[in-house]
Write a structure and sequence with these properties.
Two copies of one chain form a homodimer. Chain A has about 475 residues and is an alpha/beta fold. Chain A has 14 helices and 26 strands.
Chain lengths: ~475, ~475
């Protein structure tokens, strides 16, 4: 095989995940002379083991948890409800199987332009797959990422779970430790606890769900702590204790039947041959990449999606594939494409969300903040979901909205509203001019805007702008 | 009493509802020499009989209805759940009692500047209350509205319910006809049906929930029809049939134990003495008012809130009180205050919402539309809420977003996002530049934006704007 002449192709995409498939859409605009090389299952992380199955588990868990509100609502019989874990997991897989059909069908659709195998760079414009050498004008690398599991923990065998294996379980044991309480850890720990399992959460850091703002964390932490044991601030140690795993961390020990490891994901760049490109790599083997182009050095080689570690989120991976695909075109402009306002959402309850940069990146001297406490928000009280805190940050001088972080009900929706405002560089006054219906959670956001407005020089008077009379006929 | 000299006061506010209390806040900025005159209960329509208790009933009903999703989620025992109607209604009143505390406390807070009684205008700057004559520089009329019940139906006594009496019931009979399927009728009919009552809805018109767009109505109607009998397109007739009321309407007859009448609300302007102002009144006794000033004629007399029939919604009433209060100031500018983008939300399931003018007010020749079907929306499928249609309308030439109407899950949130966009005169491209997380319902909105973009000349290429490379350090 290796004696064959190199296969020549215009563009190679390595990895058929969300970034790769997004790149493919753009590549097809300029050429049909491409290959998509994929190692392992043709299914995106998001659809197969990420956003979609996790959300399916969370929906079931939160639906079951709502039974605790039933008596107050006047609904009887909640004590007879049971979460059937095997049935819950079976439904998660049914949903998942539907969502992966799209990416799974890619090889059929692409025919011999789809190659199953592991790609390894041989240098700029050259790679090897299944023993064949390929020469390509442009190479788009979207190899994705995988869950990190510390080597020694692998000895616990299938009692160690990750999001790769969690949704494959037919049933779950009663006691589950979750190590790593970032976005995924908090989502899964809370979902499993709400399904009736005995859950304890561990993290080496003090924060939860990736929250940066100390005030938001202080509002969030007791809400999570009410549902599970929390051990944060020291690395978790695992020890075999017969049939169970003894997990020790900050402030306590938990005997677990299984441990869900959610301490992060590692870019799949090992063995990719990035060292053959002749550009500097950092100590993790990662080259520098410009987020606006995803280009490595000055080459026609791009690294996009989770694998570059920049913003490992589905919507960002889709954007990165899009950018890389456009930048790889023979006639691409020198300019890149602007990245959107950062937006992250954690599907806990209450949800956690951040818009724009973290508070710790803002300049204290020129920034003013506004808060809204949702523990007494009227609409949320009606729905029995009142809890949490929303914080907004703006430029003091101009009132321009810079960032927000929150742990509140329906944060996913409030965060989109704020993301539009930040993206469009709106001021506090711009936002206060919009209608706020009643009773809605957006009124809580308005409270934060009003609080923020107090600190902004440019805001005052009426939310409504000066207007010539509209003419009497408007009321006819 | 009537021989007493007139009481002189700078400003009188007639009605201590949402508009009146909002006006009061502004009036106090320029004078302490005011009176607030209120007829009947010192509690706003919204808090006492409107938005708040209705939402409390709806939350309970929808929470109970979710049991139908439990088996699919893997949750067992839903068949043992029961809605205890007296307990549900008792909770509605508990919530309501909390929300009315604010307005109920107004007389105590204002002392002798609060007057309980019915006000009647005697002419510009003059009115009579409890036999006393009052002379005022400015008069702000916010008398509110009340449910309409056709006179002959009153003979059915307490078997006729309105939102004034519904939440006061200790229990509800099994069979309830809802006459009038506008926003309130649809909300209450669906809530009662979901609580297990046998409900039929009647309306003289063909539309439901105030939907203007035929396509949205066609998507919404079968969803409501699956939960109750619907008789629309002919006036309902009521007839006594012994213990029951025989309600006949389009396509059928329903034997009801009680009838909830929700055919509209009537401004409380009868007996207000508007005829003494010397301005033309229409055949309903209503003067012309400018929405930007709420002023009647050129006088210092203002008519704000539900009573003027312009936009009888809480947030608009609050704005109108605000505007009237500012316009009533001695040093008020000639200009009025601009009204916000119209926004209405119906808390049905799926929710119905409209942003901007109704489709029927738009110019077909210059408008382009985009649709998103939510019956297959991925996030909604995960939550078992997939249903409905969202429609957007923009100016063809510029892509400027003009209006939206929808019946989709979480419409209240999508509508706020769209209201901000319409208020800020954004284009389709402006909106497509924002981040859309995954998986979220906002992605359904994005589908509609993309559909819309096809018809807009000015949109194409990438959602992301052209950007100079951001510099390699961004990834460090």
């Amino acid at each position: 095989m290796q004696t064959n002449k190199p296969i020549k192709v215009d563009t190679v995409i390595v990895g058929a995940g969300s970034a790769g498939l997004s790149a493919l859409r753009e590549v097809r605009r300029y050429t049909d002379d491409f290959l998509v090389v994929n190692d392992g299952h043709w299914g995106t992380t998001c659809a197969a083991v990420g956003c979609m199955p996790s959300k399916a588990l969370i929906e079931a868990a939160h639906a079951f948890h709502r039974r605790l509100t039933f008596e107050e609502f006047g609904i009887q019989g909640a004590e007879g409800l049971r979460a059937n874990i095997p049935a819950v997991l079976a439904r998660v897989r049914r949903m998942r199987d539907g969502f992966v059909k799209g990416p799974e069908s890619v090889p059929d659709k692409l025919g011999d332009r789809a190659v199953s195998g592991r790609a390894r760079l041989l240098g700029p414009g050259r790679l090897e797959v299944n023993g064949d050498e390929i020469e390509a004008r442009a190479i788009i690398l979207t190899p994705g990422s995988r869950p990190v599991v510390p080597g020694p923990w692998r000895t616990f065998g299938d009692r160690i779970l990750t999001t790769d294996s969690l949704f494959e379980q037919d049933d779950l044991p009663r006691r589950i430790a979750v190590v790593g309480m970032g976005a995924i850890g908090v989502e899964m720990a809370q979902a499993l606890a709400r399904l009736g399992l005995d859950v304890a959460g561990f993290d080496a850091a003090e924060t939860l769900a990736g929250i940066d703002d100390r005030q938001v964390l202080e509002a969030f932490r007791p809400l999570i702590e009410a549902e599970m044991g929390l051990h944060t601030g020291a690395s978790a140690e695992l020890e075999d204790a017969g049939g169970t795993i003894r997990v020790s961390g900050a402030g306590g020990v938990f005997k677990a039947d299984a441990v869900l490891v959610a301490i992060g994901r590692r870019p799949n760049i090992d063995g990719l041959g990035l060292d053959t490109l002749g550009v500097p790599l950092d100590d993790k083997g990662m080259p520098r990449i410009d987020p606006a182009t995803l280009r490595i050095g000055e080459m026609q080689v791009f690294l996009a999606g989770d694998a570059n570690g920049y913003r490992p989120l589905l919507h960002e991976s889709a954007d990165e594939g899009h950018i890389a695909g456009r930048m790889a075109a023979p006639d691409a402009s020198d300019h890149g494409l602007c990245r959107r306002t950062a937006l992250s959402i954690v599907f806990s309850s209450p949800q956690v969300a951040r818009v724009g940069p973290p508070l710790s990146d803002l300049d204290e001297d020129t920034t003013v903040s506004g808060n809204a406490d949702f523990s007494d928000q009227p609409r949320a009280r009606i729905a029995q979901t009142a809890a949490g805190l929303l914080r907004l940050h703006a430029e003091r001088e101009t009132g321009r909205l810079l960032a927000a972080e929150m742990c509140v009900p329906a944060a996913e929706h409030l965060a989109h509203l704020l993301a539009l405002a930040v993206e469009r560089q709106m001021t506090v006054a711009d936002m206060l001019a919009m209608p706020f219906y009643h009773p809605v959670l957006e009124e809580g956001l308005r409270s934060a805007l009003r609080d923020l407005a107090k600190g902004v020089a440019a805001v005052g008077g009426s939310d409504l702008s000066d207007c010539k009379p509209m003419g009497h006929d408007a009321l006819d």
